[in-house]
Design goal:
This protein is α/β, with parallel strands linked by helices. The chain is 43% helix and 18% strand. Helix 5 links the parallel strand 2 and strand 3.
């Protein structure tokens, strides 16, 4: 986010929210470093294989809700093809701006199809892209939280009414699609104005899930896909929110200008049955796919 953008967000947020954000700034900086994952070259590839892999090992920019699902898919792709990938995770809005500024990504998996559409209009993509998943929201609370998770957010409403809720996490709605969806859910439940002074904003939804369970907050609204991972198993209680509480989180991917053979092969692999099975295992809904360039 630009300096101007940070000033605008800070000015709009209540003092309590700004204080909470400063309190946890150092922790967010550390957690942000966990969002990049590199897929290693296959074992036994040898010097020649490693050199070939380095020559075409594309950087894939992926929405943070894919932090656990996509490495599983990429690892299987590497085992099957011998091709390697470099995965980077973050907020879709930030990636959209980085691509506009010339970031060397070859494939973009966005949590919001609108970002892909904008890049396509600007001529930065190979084609219009294809939908690959539909995300879901969940309310997650750590052990000992006063919030009792339920799909209608009644437990959250009670803690707001009795004053026991101190901090609550969502992703930053300015650039994180899951943050925008979380805000919509809170607005439709009639809780947005009450919870707003208590918000701790994650840079992306993966960081938000860390805040929700680390003791930094008493809960949060995050991507359901993250909660299906072993990393979060047993760390808290959650409730899946009904899709009527927020606009559809239709996620779209696209090849970017200059995409090489490995990026194109992975793009096709992501539309195949093995990848779609993995996405479903992590709680994503699966849209119909369309033919894509080879």
């Amino acid at each position: 986010m630009t300096t101007k953008g940070r000033e605008r967000v800070s000015a709009e947020m209540p003092k309590a929210t700004r204080t909470a954000k400063r309190t946890w700034a150092a922790r967010r900086a550390l957690l942000a470093g966990l969002c990049a994952v590199a897929m290693a070259a296959p074992a036994g590839a040898g010097a020649a294989g490693a050199a070939a892999a380095a020559a075409d090992s594309p950087v894939v920019a992926a929405a943070a809700d894919l932090q656990f699902a996509l490495p599983d898919i990429a690892a299987e792709f590497t085992r099957n093809t011998g091709r390697t990938l470099r995965l980077v995770f973050g907020s879709s809005g930030n990636f959209r701006r980085q691509i506009e500024d010339g970031a060397p990504f070859q494939l973009f998996l966005s949590a919001d199809r609108a970002y892909v559409a904008a890049l396509a209009r600007e001529g930065r993509t190979v084609d219009a892209g294809v939908d690959y998943a539909v995300g879901r929201l969940a309310l997650i609370v750590p052990p000992g939280s006063p919030v009792k998770p339920d799909p209608e957010l009644r437990g959250l409403a009670r803690t707001l009414a009795d004053g026991t809720l101190q901090r609550f996490a969502i992703a930053n709605p300015d650039h994180a699609p899951y943050g925008r969806a979380a805000r919509q859910a809170l607005e439709r439940a009639g809780l947005w104005e009450a919870v707003r002074p208590k918000l701790v904003l994650g840079e992306n939804v993966s960081q938000t899930a860390q805040f929700a369970l680390s003791g930094a907050t008493q809960g949060g609204i995050v991507a359901y896909s993250l909660l299906r991972s072993p990393a979060f198993a047993g760390r808290g209680d959650y409730a899946l929110l009904p899709t009527s509480m927020y606009d559809p989180l239709t996620q779209r991917m696209v090849l970017l200008e200059g995409a090489g053979a490995t990026a194109r092969a992975f793009y096709m692999y992501l539309q195949g049955p093995a990848a779609r099975t993995t996405l479903a295992r992590y709680g994503f809904e699966l849209p119909a796919t369309a033919a894509s360039p080879r």
